[in-house]
Structures are given as structure tokens and as C-alpha cells.
What does this fold into?
Amino acid sequence: MMSRMRSRNAMRIVVGIVVVGLVASMGYGFISARHAPEPPPAGAPELEPAPSMDSLGTPPNRVEYADLGEICEVEECFRAVSVSSEDLSAEEAIDTIYTTLLDRGMGRMLPPGEEDPEEVDWVDSALTDNTVVIQGSDQPPSPEAEEDGAIAHLVITHAAESES
It folds into this structure.
């Protein structure tokens, strides 16, 4: 038996089997690594969950909210909210929501370079209470939501901490 193992043909077969095994295991590892989820960058902060729907309070008359869920991107999580109304246009619904939230103590944030709130449409500004920021849009969040009666949407995010 030992004489057969010492022959050149036997050694070639053993070496061939070892090489094929190594190549197969490296190929499996490479394919597995390419399909593995990417870990967060080292030192990346854990994302804070999106603000809750409670930030909006109860919807104003003739307006309904539907939570579309939390959406997390690279740097932050936010909540998308569908807005529907039977008898208001999208612009009127956003106006009603913003007016109600201002009456509840929120403040208006104007776009950079703008100083006169009378010259800025509601949908071009945002509201904040220094803990959350609410941005309205007079567009439905998606074609599917529009089919379900959505006429506009809101996005709720955490207010950025001011650097002082």
C-alpha cells in the first residue's frame, strides 16, 4: 500500500484533490462574502428611531393621517405620513395642518435666504418645536397611496441639535 502512495500518479491525484478543495472553499467564501450584509462603518453612531405620530397630535377637521412607517437612511430615521381628505385639496390640507400645528405652539422654519413668511408657501417651509421637524408636501407619497386616497404627505424627523 505504501508503495502505491509513493508513486507519482498517486501524489498527483492527492495534490489535485487538495488544490480543488482549496479553490472550492475559497470560491464559496468569496461568494458568501459578496452576499453578506454590509456592517455599519466602525464608530458609526446607532440611529435614533423616527419620531412617533404623536408629534402631529390629532388631525384637524376634514383631514386624516395614515402612518406609512419609519424609513431609515444612512444618517437618520424619519416617519412618513400620508394625508387624505374628502373635501380639501392638497394645498388646503397642508395649510390646515400647518395652521393647526402653529396654533399648538410650533414655530415656522423658512428656507435659507427667506425672511418674509408671507412670501413663502406653506409647502416650502417646515414646522418645528425644537424636538421634531415636520415638512409637508402637496404631492401624494406614492402612486399606490394616491389610489388609496392620499392627496399629500408629511415627513417627521428629529430636530438637529444646534451647534453653539
Observations:
- The chain has a mean pLDDT of 84.
- Residues 68 and 80 are 5 Å apart (CA to CA).
